[in-house]
Write a structure and sequence with these properties.
This protein is α/β, with parallel strands linked by helices and about 350 residues long. It folds into two domains: about 210 residues, Vaccinia Virus protein VP39 (Rossmann fold); about 70 residues, no CATH class. The protein is built from eleven helices and nine strands. It has a seven-stranded mixed β-sheet, with helices on both faces. Strands 1-2 form a two-stranded antiparallel ribbon. α4 runs parallel beside α5, α6 runs antiparallel to α7 and α9 runs parallel beside α10. The two termini are about 50 Å apart. About 25% of the residues are buried. Belongs to the class I-like SAM-binding methyltransferase superfamily. RNA methyltransferase RlmE family. Keywords: Methyltransferase, rRNA processing, S-adenosyl-L-methionine, Transferase. InterPro entries: RNA_methyltr_RlmE, RNA_MeTrfase_FtsJ_dom, rRNA-MeTfrase_E, SAM-dependent_MTases_sf. Pfam families: FtsJ. GO terms for molecular function: rRNA (uridine-2'-O-)-methyltransferase activity.
């Protein structure tokens, strides 16, 4: 049985639309033809796959969750004993988000970014955006920056409550000042003004302040990139708000060379995110499809990270060309991207 989903772009809509036109565009028509041999093989493979069955039992959104679980078991990406900022690129449909929530500290900040909309699990924020846009990078930085400031504000308020229970009036006042200053940072930035003159104060920044500013520019501890496979849209999205995502470059064509080159483009996009937003000593994993260019990508990654490993989880099918680069220990806060891409 084959099915056809009718959906008309805005430019092809008829001038006069009948009352049932919007319904007709969503109707599925079924034919009486038998399934092709390739369709039958695919269905049999899914039915007999142990990870597909186990994903349903554990309520994972896809079998890809087991790949991240197996990677984390060996390379310890997530730390349950301290909060982390985690960026998940190509997060739809959210299977990796489920693993991140399970393995990270409860106060960790997790952001999923995808050009397609999806429903994230509880405890995860999501952003529908194109990672190739610099505006998306700015939005990601602002999200984690604000999250970190809110976390510091909460900690300051906790100290204030503890001081008020057994401390002096002076200690309470000082802690209140810390909390109020952090609140001002959230709303007005880091510029301080002299209350008497109204002029900006000239202050000498300490080493700690400089380090804090650097961390604020690169607030992410872990970047995971699974940018490749699309998922079925849950509704029509008549306005085409995602710019026809099913025709974006991340779709699999079935042609090994083309799929490999497209995956290299997406890996380079993830690498740029790491250069701009990942902290020193941060970690990254990215999916790629093996081919001639992956050695050059490995050289570029080696410029940014101390250790780079190739890893194929057991949950990846043996016949698949899918593989992962595991990158540990970002060498420097500030990375010259020209030097990175000159390497290969």
């Amino acid at each position: 049985m084959t099915s056809i989903l009718l959906s008309f772009p805005n430019t092809l809509q008829p001038k006069f639309i009948t009352p049932w036109a919007h319904i007709a565009s969503q109707i599925r028509y079924y034919s009486s033809k038998k399934k092709s041999a390739s369709s039958t093989r695919w269905l049999d493979r899914q039915k007999n796959d142990q990870y597909t069955r186990e994903a349903k039992l554990k309520n994972f959104k896809s079998r890809a969750a087991f790949k991240l679980l197996q990677i984390n078991t060996i390379f310890k990406l997530f730390t349950p004993d301290r909060p982390q900022n985690v960026l998940d690129l190509g997060a739809a449909p959210g299977a990796w988000n489920q693993v991140e929530v399970e393995k990270c500290h409860p106060h960790s900040k997790i952001l999923g970014v995808d050009i397609l909309p999806y429903d994230p699990p509880s405890g995860v924020s999501t952003m529908q955006a194109n990672i190739l846009s610099k505006q998306t990078h700015r939005l990601i930085r602002d999200f984690f920056r604000k999250s970190d400031q809110e976390r510091e504000l909460k900690a300051a308020r906790t100290m204030e409550i503890q001081s008020s229970s057994g401390g002096t009036i002076a200690s309470i006042t000082n802690e209140s000042l810390v909390a109020s200053e952090l609140e001002n940072d959230l709303d007005e930035g880091y510029e301080s003004h002299n209350s008497k003159t109204g002029k900006k104060e000239k202050t000498i920044k300490s080493v700690e302040e400089i380090e804090a500013e650097r961390e604020n520019e690169r607030p992410i501890d872990v970047v995971v990139s699974d940018m490749y496979e699309p998922f079925l849209q849950v509704s029509g999205y008549h306005a085409r708000t995602t710019n026809l995502p099913y025709f974006r470059m991340a779709n699999m064509t079935g042609l090994a060379l083309k799929d490999h080159l497209m995956s290299m483009d997406l890996c380079d996009a993830a690498l740029i995110v790491c250069c701009d937003l990942l902290k020193k000593n941060g970690k990254c994993i990215m999916k790629f499809f093996t081919g001639e260019e992956d050695k050059n990508l490995e050289k570029r990654l080696s410029v940014v990270f101390r250790k780079v490993y190739r890893f194929k989880p057991k949950a990846t099918r043996p016949e698949s060309k899918e593989c992962y680069f595991i990158c540990l220990g970002k060498k420097h806060d500030i990375v010259n991207k020209m030097n990175v891409f000159r390497a290969a």
